[in-house]
């Protein structure tokens, strides 16, 4: 049973800004209503500009949250796009390795990089939700499907299985205080879709946001991502990927089909698709380019025997489940369940 949650801003410092205060207040109240103590790490609320310019302090917040024995769970505030800059402060003198302490780590989006950092030091994490995106949902309650998995995690410390959501929601366009208490527009959801290969497969899951993974190999966003990620060997080697299930989901940037193909081809060049046991694809936000993405991933993988399951409620489309990384998972597309 989780008692104390530490909130960290490892990418963007959004939660420190006035324009989200109404959301943050709502989220903090929800955590307290769950009976949780909330520990806001020292720089988590320092705002966008400060957090952007102080990667060392972001890293210190994470290390401190790990070292603090009173903290049971580390919850990422939100994603962003430059958490790779924490690498020197976490790995130069084995800082992260020495700070690791058994607790839950939960985040998604740019946090994909942090999941890889923690995987590197042998620490299992949970992918799929964040404080601002999920706990601070502006409807009267957290989205029911999202809340179900969040509650399971804080009550039991684990996730036993995931099944598809009955509905999916359109993304909000109004985030102002006026939108508090308003519902998102919902649509019927179709469940897990087997695109190719056997309908059952197993392995430990690892992966995350495709754009974040692409940044490990591409300098377009920041000129030093590739050199830093190479220096600290952030992307696991092929031996490590052997038999794993690769999780991929796309961000709110809703990449064009051309860019989606480019990112997948970059991944393919690592040889990863030759050694993994299967692929899970998250539902794209607002289902934009969904049909194209499904076609492109099968074309790029170019191996009909590798199972690919799409439309998993994980990543940037709501609602969101939570996927444990690093534990044995079995996927059954026919029975519509992933068990851990």
TrEMBL record:
CDD domains: Peptidase_S66_mccF_like
Domain called LD-carboxypeptidase N-terminal: residue spans: 5-128
Ranges where the LD-carboxypeptidase C-terminal domain occurs: 202-331
Any GO molecular function: carboxypeptidase activity
Family to which this protein belongs: Belongs to the peptidase S66 family.
Keyword Protein biosynthesis: no
Organism listed in the record: Pseudobutyrivibrio xylanivorans DSM 14809
Keywords, comma-separated and alphabetical: Carboxypeptidase, Hydrolase, Protease
InterPro entries: Carboxypeptidase_A_C_sf (IPR027461), Class_I_gatase-like (IPR029062), LdcA_N (IPR027478), Peptidase_S66_N (IPR040449), Peptidase_S66C (IPR040921), S66_fam (IPR003507)
Protein name: Muramoyltetrapeptide carboxypeptidase LdcA (Peptidoglycan recycling)
């Amino acid at each position: 049973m989780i008692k104390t949650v530490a909130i960290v801003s490892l990418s963007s410092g959004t939660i420190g800004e006035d324009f989200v205060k109404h959301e943050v207040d709502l989220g903090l109240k929800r955590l307290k209503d769950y009976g949780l103590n909330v520990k806001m790490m020292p720089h988590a609320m320092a705002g966008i500009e400060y957090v952007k310019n102080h990667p060392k302090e972001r890293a210190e917040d994470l290390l401190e949250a790990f070292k603090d024995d009173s903290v049971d769970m580390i919850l990422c505030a939100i994603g962003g796009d430059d958490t790779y800059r924490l690498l020197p402060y976490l790995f130069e003198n084995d800082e992260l390795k020495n700070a690791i302490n058994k607790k839950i780590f939960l985040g998604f989006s740019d946090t994909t990089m942090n999941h890889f950092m923690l995987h590197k030091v042998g620490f299992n994490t949970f992918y799929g939700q964040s404080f601002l995106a999920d706990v601070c949902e502006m409807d009267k309650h957290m989205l029911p499907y999202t809340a179900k998995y969040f509650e399971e995690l804080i009550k039991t410390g684990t996730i036993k299985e995931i099944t598809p959501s009955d509905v999916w929601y359109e993304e909000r366009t109004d985030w102002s205080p006026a939108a508090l208490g308003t519902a998102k527009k919902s649509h019927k959801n179709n469940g897990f879709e087997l695109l190719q290969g056997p309908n059952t497969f197993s392995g430990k899951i690892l992966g995350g946001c495709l754009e974040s993974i692409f940044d490990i190999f591409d300098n377009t966003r920041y000129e030093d991502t590739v050199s830093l990620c190479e220096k600290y060997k952030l992307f696991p080697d092929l031996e490590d990927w052997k038999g794993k299930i690769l999780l991929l989901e796309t961000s709110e940037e809703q990449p064009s089909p051309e860019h989606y193909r480019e990112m997948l081809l970059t991944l393919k060049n690592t040889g990863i698709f030759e050694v993994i046991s299967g692929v899970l694809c998250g539902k794209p936000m607002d289902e934009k380019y969904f049909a194209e993405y499904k076609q492109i991933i099968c074309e790029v993988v170019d191996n009909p025997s590798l199972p690919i399951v799409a439309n998993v409620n994980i990543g940037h489309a709501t609602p969101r489940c939570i996927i444990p990384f690093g534990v044995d998972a079995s996927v059954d597309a026919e029975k519509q369940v992933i068990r851990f």
